Amino acid sequence: MHQTVLLREAVDALVTNPSGFYVDGTFGRGGHSLAILDQLDDNGQLLGVDKDPQAAVTAAQLQKVEKRFSFFHGSFAQLQGKFEEMGVETVDGILLDLGVSSPQLDEASRGFSFLNDGPLDMRMDTSRGETAAQWIAAASVEEIASVLRE
Ligand SMILES: C[S@@+](CC[C@H](N)C(=O)[O-])C[C@H]1O[C@@H](n2cnc3c(N)ncnc32)[C@H](O)[C@@H]1O
Fold first, then answer.
1. Would you tell me which of 59, 91, 123, 126 could form a disulfide with 71, CB atoms 3.0–4.6 Å apart?
2. pLDDT band for position 1 (50/70/90)?
3. Is 49 in the pocket of ligand 1 (CB under 6 A)?
4. Is the beta carbon of 14 within 6 A of some atom in ligand 1?
5. Which residues contact 133 (CB under 8 A, 6 or more apart)?
6. Is 127's pLDDT higher than 90?
7. What's the CA gap between 105 and 150, in Å, rounded?
8. What percent of the chain is helix, strand and coil (3-state, nearest 5)?
9. Is 50 in the pocket of ligand 1 (CB under 6 A)?
C-alpha cells in the first residue's frame, strides 16, 4: 500500500482558499488529492495529473463520485496548455510530490525496483515512449554518461 508522505503538512500549507482551484500534479494513488478535497468547499476544484496509467485508473474511479475533481493523463509539464484549454486564469496552488510512487517500485515489471528483477522499462507512462532498455541499446557512451551525470 502506498503511504502518502507529509500528507497533513503539505495539504495544510497548500489550501488557503477552500473555494479555490488547486492542482495535484503528481496524483499517484490520490492520497494528497483526497486530503485536498477534504479541505475544499462545494465551490472548490481540484485537477489531478499523472503520467502513470495506473494512477489514471484510480483517478477515473474518484471522478465518478467526486464532481469537484477532474483529471488528465499526462505530464505536469503540459499544465499551461491544459489551463488555456480549460479557460483557467488563476490557480490557488499546485502540489508536486516528485519521484516514483511505491506501487511503481513494488511492481518489478516497471523496471524501477532494486529488490526484484524485472525488464529495464523505467517509464512513468507505460502507454507511450521507449523503454530504458530500448534507449540504452541505441544511445552512445557519451549520452549514457551525460544522463547518469545529470
Ligand atoms: C511520489 S508519487 C505521488 C504520490 C501521491 N502524492 C499520492 O499521495 O498517492 C509521484 C507520482 O508522480 C508521477 N509523475 C512523475 N513524473 C511526472 C510528470 N512529469 N508528470 C506527471 N506525473 C508524474 C508518478 O507517476 C507518480 O505517480
1. 59
2. low
3. yes
4. no
5. 111, 119, 120, 121
6. yes
7. 22
8. 45, 10, 45
9. yes
Q: Which triple of cell numbers denotes residue 141?
A: 557512451
Q: What are the pLDDT digits (tens) for 15-67?
A: 999 999 999 999 999 999 999 999 999 999 999 999 999 999 999 999 999 99
Ligand 1 centroid–CA 68 distance in Å is 20
| Cβ pair 16, 92 in contact under 8 A | yes
Give the separation between CA 69 and CA 62, rounded to whole angstroms. Answer: 8
DSSP helix/strand/coil, 147: helix
Could you tell me if 37 and 60 are in contact, meaning their C-beta atoms sit under 8 angstroms apart? Answer: no
Domains of the chain: residue spans and CATH: 7-103 (3.40.50.150), 118-149 (no CATH)
